[in-house]
Automatic annotation (TrEMBL):
Keywords: DNA-binding. It comes from the Bacteria. InterPro entries: Homeodomain-like_sf (IPR009057), HTH-type_Tx_Regulator (IPR050624), HTH_TetR (IPR001647). Residues 29-89 form the HTH tetR-type domain. Residues 1-15 have a biased composition (Basic and acidic residues). Residues 1-23 are annotated as: Disordered. This is Transcriptional regulator, TetR family. PANTHER family: ACREF/ENVCD OPERON REPRESSOR-RELATED, ACREF_ENVCD OPERON REPRESSOR-RELATED. Residues 52-71 bind DNA. It comes from Saccharopolyspora kobensis. SUPFAM superfamilies: Homeodomain-like (SSF46689).
Amino acid sequence: MPVNDHRAEPTERSNRMTWGGTNLEQRRSARRSKLLEVGLELLGTQGSAAVTVRSVCRHAKLTDRYFYESFSDRDALLLAVYDQVAEEARTALGAAMANTEGTREAVATAAVEAFLAVLTDDPRKGRVLLLEPVTDATLGGRGAELMPVFADLIRSELDGEAADLGARMTATALIGALTNLFIRWLDGSLPATHEQLVDYCVKLLLTAASLVDDHAV
């Protein structure tokens, strides 16, 4: 006669049980959010060298057991923080381009302003997204992986045809140029005001759009 296996029942019950009005899944989610919050603070203010399992747990007031509940290692946390900021930037850029009507100049201005807002409204995010990948190999690799995502956003505005090689090359070149402009502006080596940077980036985008138009078949 088969014997019923009830070993899974305690876990299922514990997932449903509540302490202080929250269940196990909600508490795990809250702990993960806290670790991400601390990761952003340390990475965005002190740099990747300051992000260790010990330092994160100390600032989050959690044991390492709870760290490994959410992340396999320190690099996994770094990437999660980076991905979170990158997705915010991608969403802001895409929304600005999709929701702005009018000339190419108006769309380009809205896109540049939206992207810069993510970098500057919370300076930690600018450091995470652009400055730390310059010196941290893990973040640098992720940044290289995500570049085509941002290039596709620009390409879609330059030319609606994904197969247009000229638009794709131009968008890829623009991403490299804009990224370096933003990096040098954030690290202080490019002495431009916010308005000067926006104006230059918009002119760069419009010039690139004209280049694509001139070579369109």
